[in-house]
Predict the structure.
Amino acid sequence: MKAARFSRFGGPEVLEIVDLPEPRPGAGQVRIAVRAAGVNASDWKKRAGVMDEGLPQTLGYEAAGVVDELGAGVADVAVGDRVYGFDVEGAAQAEFAVLSHYAPIPPSLDFADAAALPAAVETAARALDRLGVDGGASGGGRTRSASGGASPGDGAFASGSGRTLLVNGASGSVGSAAVQLAVARGARVIGTAGPANHDHLRALGAEPVAYGSGLVERVRALAPGGVDLALDVAGSGVLPELIALAGGAEHVVTIADFAGAHQHGVTFSRGDDGRALYALDEIGGLIASGRFALPVVRTFPLAEIAEAHRAGEAGVRGKLVLLIA
């Protein structure tokens, strides 16, 4: 099968499309014929050698496609079903991929839209859960996993908490997802972004403020008593300001500033202590009800993966997705 890989660290030019053996699903897993695979910042960080040391490396943690092989014990989907989810081996940018965590693709979505969602939606939902931005105890979906079990959604999208959340870095893929999920959970959301993205945040239901010097004063102009909770998506060195606004490090979560989290006593969420996999099942209802707007998707053929990396590193807005014929 054709798959993206690199055998040395460097710029986008080190990326190759190579022939690799087709993967086989293990117990509780499914194999899909990949139709679309998401591209994330972790991909070019891996390629640059700042994450994993081993070589060669494949790429891709999220994908959407058609089930073509079932692992032992899988009974909740069938061959031919459309699913999306996570390839924990990081090899989803290929003609075939094994998904350890998966859910049916919402009927209204095409493959490219579906592939744009898993990482952003799960990361955002997990961070909000860590902060306690929940929505009560009604409802709840279930998402399949390689263990054969399911992660229960606890009604996180059902009703509101009424608290004020500050999202630092609210206009990117994870930030935009966090804004919308928090609004759906009933929170008031203030989001930082550059002025060019303020209308975008308003459309998502957030009150925008500019990032940079004077952030605390700008937020207090909207929320004189500060905020209840803060989520750092951007990793831009503002944890002290977020702590001051939220009234303590225990009210702040970051997904982007590991060193700062250690220094300031803030929770760093990276998923190794549990993932919000229920979000893959529940996001379809929010999309159908108009409470979650899909990200702008920019697609590239698999063969043009280097161009996708260049676009991502240049900071293009929207979600990058590779299409696999």
